[in-house]
Amino acid sequence: MSRFTQRLLARRRTVLGLVLVSVLCVAAALAPWLVPYDPTAQLDLAGGQYLDPSVAHPFGTDFYSRDLFSRVLYGSRISLTVAFLSVLLSVTIGTAVGLIAGLAGGAVDTVLMRLVDAALAIPRVFLLIVVLALWEGVGLWGLILILGLTSWIDASRIVRGEVLSLKTRDFVTAARATGIGARRLAWSHLLPNLAAPIIVTATLGIGQIILTEAALSYLGIGVKPPMPSWGSIIAEGQQTLGSAPWVATFPGIAIVVTVVGFGLLGDGLRDALDPRTR
């Protein structure tokens, strides 16, 4: 067992986060084979509305007699897909901006960081609501694009800070003394040393994106029905919290467990990859 694995598994909360994330990812990947019903199928509009949780319907049914277990499980596929692809896009953009700003310095760094500061001045949630409200009919790929293009700022600041620190290291000075260009310096020497903060930022960002997507879907401007989303399922069940609480409870629990799992895993990765905690 490597030292990194030993440090990662040394804390129980990190192991718990790893288990939660692993179970969630496996369940989402196997959802087509695990769900007993089509998540969009209206099984029995006459007598199947708001059925209590049972063996046939572990999470009960909703107003349209749809099986909630199937919808929550398929909702995990959508939430994870949106989160992973959005974070991939945001981390890629943020890494590129931070790397260019930190490596170039001078006027380039100043201009890029002022643009970042200007972007930080705009409330992100307000920006998302305005864009999605004006862009009617946005699909899943459009939602991923919007979330990714509005969440790269933190990654750029982290990467820039790390690059400024790495530029003073002896191995960078020695590499520059050999006459290599900036592109090769960034690709061969800086990016490998930036892997740790990038991985931690991406892991923590997944939980944030899942929360954001659920909030937007709850407001009706995220994932469009009948496609199952945890946020939209909660919105559908808010009117029946007294008579059929399971409609909103189970997707809410799924969101909490997922965000906590990625948060615990991100904290564990940060501690395991940070040389100052060794």
Features:
mainly alpha, 278 residues, 12 helices, single chain, MetI-like fold
Please tell me about this protein's structure.
By secondary structure, the chain is an all-alpha fold. It has one domain (3-277): MetI-like (MetI-like fold). It is built from twelve helices and no strands. The chain has helices spanning 3-8, 12-29, 31-34, 68-104, 106-120, 124-134, 140-149, 153-166, 170-177, 182-219, 230-237, 246-273. Helix 10 (182-219) packs parallel to helix 11 (230-237). It is elongated. The relative contact order is 0.16.
Per CATH, what is the topology? MetI-like fold
Q: Which range best describes the helical content: under 10%, 10-25%, 25-40%, 40-55%, 55-70% or over 70%?
A: over 70%
Mean pLDDT: 85
CATH architectural type: Orthogonal Bundle
Using only CA atoms, what is the Rg? Answer: 22 Å
Q: Measure the end-to-end span.
A: 16 Å
What is the general shape? elongated
Structure class: mainly alpha
- What is the subunit organization of this protein? single chain
Query: Which CATH class is shown?
Result: Mainly Alpha
How large is the count of helical segments? 12
